[in-house]
Amino acid sequence: MKTDNTLLRLARTDWFGPLLVTVLAIALIRGFSPNFLSSFNIQILLLAIAVNALIAFSQMIIIAIGQMNLSVGAIGGLAAISFAGLMQVWGLSAPMAAIAAVLIGVVCGMLNGLLIAITGISAFVITLATLSIYKGINLGITRAEPFYGVPGQVKAFGSALLVGPVPWLAAPTIIIAFALWFMLRRQPIGRFILAIGGNSHAAELSGISIRTTMIVAHGISGLLASVAGILLVSRLQIGQPSIGDDWLILSFAAPVIGGAVLAGGHVSVGATLLGVVIVAIITQALVLFSIDPFLVQVVLGAMILAAVGINRLRETHLGKKTGKA
Amino acid sequence: MDKQPVFQARNIEKVFPGVRALKGVNLSLEPGSIHALLGENGAGKSTLIKVITGVHHQSSGQILVDGQEVRFGNPREAIARGIGVVHQERNLIPRFSIAENIHMEKLGAHYLKPIDYAALNRDARRWLQALNLEVDPAMPVSELSVAQMQLVEIAKALSLQSRVLLLDEPTTSLTPSETDNLFRILRRLRDDGASLVFVSHKLEEVLDICDRVTVLRDGENACESRSMEGLGRQDLVRLMIGRAEGGGGWRKRAVEHNPLVLELKGVSTAIGHRDVSLSVRKGEIVGLYGLVGAGRTELAKSIMGKFAVTEGEVRIEDRPARIRSVAEAIHEYGVGYVSEDRKGDGLILQHSVLANAGVPIWRKLSNAFGVLSDSRIRAAVTPFLQKLEVKTPSLSQTVGNLSGGNQQKISVAKWLAADVKLLIVDEPSVGIDIKTKAYLHDLLRELADSGTAILVITSDMPEMVALADRIVVMDRYRVKGVVENNGVYADMSEGIMGLIHDAERVTALSRQA
């Protein structure tokens, strides 16, 4: 009886399912391929997770307010080439260039939020348009040619190890994950973001400014996307204009695997992180077993479908009345 | 009384493009009273509430709080002046805790300062205790019952130092005992000096709990902030509709020899009906009565082809009917269904009046190339919309913007236009006022007189007695019996409840055996 209850309670949390899948996947893949948990392989996994987690968080914060941001990749790409370009062309120091690139990301994000708030047009349409605009600016600046002049210290940061197999690149991600968790849990602005996603009408009547909150959420989304872009430049060691092109599906997959409700009002930082880990492990496994890399897309799509299906089951069978607002 | 009114609305006018919704309305609220705000749909009640709570601005007139003139720019400012509302729809964040919902307002002052949940819970518990709500403030709101959520909203309003509390149809989704509990609390709040405004269609409740009353009719005061003393149900009705309530309007109609339009013989369905037999003759109104969960709506939907008939026979106009879809029911067999859930099933709220009223006849009206013209639809539906006195600025008005009564009229009109032989009407008067209800009854009778067979599903026994020629009683997906209506309420309710309780006794016995 007691264990039944514990199990039920665990099944209701967002992180339990993904954690189970993570552990099982690791055990299974380790069984077939002992190399999987080699220090080098773990390092590669963590590098991918560090960047992908930021991409996922960038979408997650918008899912929280019940919207979507199709321009996550475009913002990340624009920030990435700005970072590299500012260092190569204008000779800015790495920290200055990083700050400038982050600012660009925040502005791009806030512009999304502002346009949605002012026009009342759906986030889908607005971010589809800005996706094209941001990407166009990116290509206009770079002429689709990478910036190669990334300074050595940035390249070093991209490959340095912090402790054991943990790369330095993971440090910003860890800090950001904690900050996001704290914000969504304990800070009014985080609660407002979730409140608007849960029932925007009620939130408004409680005196929450929907407009401000929406713009802040999109600003945060832009910030996270730009940090992801910057980290990717230091990992790839060039300012590649195509950075961000393949972020979209991943950005939705991880939060959804982590139990996020696409209608808004409910996301989990920890479970989203686990979602990223699962995607990374499975992608890695496909490589290890030398399966056609193009299958990765198929698998990712299938995983989104499976995750949505499981979330739905959880809602209907485990959640009591999840009173739809 | 010489108590200073907490709140006064003086000569409020509100003009919308094309409509004068309020034409100089007065309202004055005193502390320590429960004030009924009555009026039929379209009388201007909702508009007045929106003006009072800062959602709309009045076009002219004054609002005074504690004798001082105020002007609310938005709902927040009204709340800040102590005017709280508990809306019909729940305004809580489902996944947030009770305490957080109650204090959401106060968190707005800082965006970044960490929230002290322990303090929130402590403070929330105080307000919950004041309302006798024994729940853990840390529990998410989504786990509460509707009645409890409502109390949380009241707690929220009280925690904001509301002195005027508007309750908009607070009892619609409550059980009788929950309603009693709510009333106990409201009375206590009144005794503590609060000024409550109670908006409801249920006159019995108004008579039970309110001590003062304002009635609106056609955007004007039919009576203004007077004492309830000496007012009875009939007086309130007269104030609301400007005349006395009709006496039900039942009359004996000779239909025994008309041909059968619908006949079910021993029908079982995929969703659990067993051995259901009933018939409706041409021009006859048959009532389908039963408690909630008796399977009436489900039976109607099975007839319409939404759920499969697994056994028995459905005959329409004396030929066997195998209806597999709603489209077939309408076009092949001439069966129409007015849904109980207007918003969910019956109407497309974002579409225009014209589009809604015309949906069932699109197929019939389209020309050889399958092309529709608005003018043909307009010509086909306008007579029916006029007959039902649908109040709409134009046929291109979005249905969602019309009042509940007008929406119901449109959902009936669309079937009239489709010229159906059998019309199934599910809970026709839920959410509509007395006047519209009477019209609707007249209309259904006229319709039957002109030869349409009608099957009415309703849980409102007076309505059933006023309308039906025969009443079929259902319980737990079976037909329990048929009562011939003689128009006498007492006889009928006895007969009907007898059939239902008999059934219960029999099942209880068979369970024992």
Task: Walk me through what this model shows.
The complex is a heterodimer of chains A (325) and B (513). Chain A has 325 residues and is mostly helical. Chain A has a single domain, classed as Orthogonal Bundle (ABC transporter involved in vitamin B12 uptake, BtuC), CATH 1.10.3470.10. Chain A is 74% helix and 2% strand. Chain A contains 14 helices and two strands. A two-stranded antiparallel sheet of chain A has the order 1-2. In chain A, a hairpin with a 2-residue loop joins β1 and β2. The C terminus of chain A is likely disordered. With 513 residues, chain B is of the alpha/beta class. Chain B has a domain of 235 residues: P-loop containing nucleotide triphosphate hydrolases (Rossmann fold, 3-Layer(aba) Sandwich). Helix content of chain B is 37%, strand content 24%. In chain B, strands 6-7-8-3-9-10 form a six-stranded mixed beta sheet, sandwiched between helices. Chain B has a six-stranded mixed beta sheet with strand order 16-17-18-13-19-20, sandwiched between helices. Chain B has a four-stranded antiparallel beta sheet with strand order 2-1-4-5, covered by helices on one side. In chain B, a hairpin with a 2-residue loop joins β14 and β15. The longest helix of chain B is centred in the C-terminal third of the chain and has 24 residues. At the A-B interface, α9 and α10 of A face α2 and α3 of B.
